């Protein structure tokens, strides 16, 4: 029987044939075809991923990581047994198990320390979409720069720090590898959301605009300057817990209003009556200004407005300034604007104190030449 493929190594044709034969035997035991057995296995993995609270891709990555660690553990045990046989010393099974982590899926404390430190640095992260969820994405080269910075050396030199030492680019890459090994950050790549559909525009006609990327997790967790990673480590959730506790406390306080002391209930009643009075006063003022405008529109054209900026898109205090104002005709407004634009381009002639002619030319600024529409431009990353 052929040996299993090494981690990161492509299986040979003999190994592929052996795996297919084993898959067919397992399907035959359960009375299924090979395709039905593969579909059943996928459904089982999806159910296990749902129980673990992880997406399908993340759970597959975790299974591969566990399988890789088990394979390495078996290799270490085999090497230790061979070394023990050569040296003539008995090798106990329990002693070999003490050299590997008890929980292979648990994150490494050093990896958590590195992730916590990097999360506090400015990696120029951008928001991306992974299976509909927003994730922070960053480039590897910015993380490597941060790991080789003086700030990292200062944090690593503190007493009790779990940050591993970094001396050069090679050690920085080894330190960064702790993140994907502990599933704290994973390599991703951009995907087309219209891929596989016929309703999307062709890829050549699409113009890349800086915004949200639709991404997928890559199987090979390589490390290179131009690759992108996303954060799966969210850090301490004490803020979210505090907000949730505060919201729950507020809801319970409102629900238990009948149990409040009498003075507090009376105070809340007066406060609510005051707020209702202010709202009623606002509506009354709105009706009064409309009636006033209707009367003055016929009595004293073009009509008088009380607080003309009340419903305009201005600040709170500007809504009540000025107190009154005349209604302005839209045609007159447009004529004034046109006259102002035309006056900017006219050439005025006059005389100075010496009697010589002076020509004053105003710089003409055409609104057509100004592009006032908001635009989103792509910025090249460093």
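^ Assign residues to that structure.
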């Amino acid at each position: 029987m052929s040996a299993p493929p090494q981690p990161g190594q492509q299986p040979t044709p003999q190994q592929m044939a052996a795996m297919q034969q084993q898959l067919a035997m397992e399907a035959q035991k359960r009375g299924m075809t090979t395709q039905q057995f593969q579909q059943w296995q996928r459904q089982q993995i999806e159910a296990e991923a749902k129980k673990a609270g992880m997406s399908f891709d993340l759970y597959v990555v975790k299974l591969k990581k566990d399988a890789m660690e088990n394979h390495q553990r078996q290799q270490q045990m085999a090497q230790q047994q061979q070394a023990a046989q050569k040296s003539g010393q008995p090798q106990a099974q329990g002693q070999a198990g003490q050299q590997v982590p008890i929980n292979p899926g648990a994150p490494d404390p050093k990896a958590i320390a590195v992730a916590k430190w990097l999360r506090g640095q400015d990696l120029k992260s951008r928001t991306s979409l992974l299976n509909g969820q927003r994730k922070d994405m960053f480039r590897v080269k910015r993380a490597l720069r941060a790991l080789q910075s003086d700030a990292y050396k200062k944090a690593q030199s503190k007493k009790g720090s779990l940050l591993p030492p970094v001396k050069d680019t090679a050690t920085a890459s080894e330190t960064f590898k702790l993140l994907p090994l502990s599933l704290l950050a994973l390599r991703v790549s951009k995907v087309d959301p219209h891929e596989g559909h016929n309703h999307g525009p062709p890829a050549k006609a699409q113009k890349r605009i800086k915004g949200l990327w639709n991404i997928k997790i890559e199987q090979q967790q390589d490390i290179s300057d131009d690759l992108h990673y996303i954060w799966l480590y969210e850090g301490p959730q004490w803020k979210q817990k505090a907000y949730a506790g505060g919201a729950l406390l507020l809801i319970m306080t409102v629900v238990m209003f009948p149990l409040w002391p009498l003075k507090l209930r009376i105070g809340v009643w007066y406060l609510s009556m005051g707020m209702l009075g202010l709202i009623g006063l606002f509506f009354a003022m709105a009706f009064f200004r409309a009636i006033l405008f209707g009367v003055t529109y016929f009595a004293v054209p073009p009509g008088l407005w009380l607080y003309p900026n009340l419903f305009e898109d201005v600040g709170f205090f500007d809504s009540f300034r000025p107190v009154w104002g005349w209604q302005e005709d839209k045609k007159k407004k447009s004529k004034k604007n046109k006259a102002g634009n035309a006056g900017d381009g006219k050439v005025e002639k006059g005389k100075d104190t010496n009697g010589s002619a002076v020509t004053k030319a105003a710089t003409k600024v055409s609104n057509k030449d100004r592009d006032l529409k908001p635009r989103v431009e792509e910025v090249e990353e460093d």
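The chain is about 50% helix and 10% strand.
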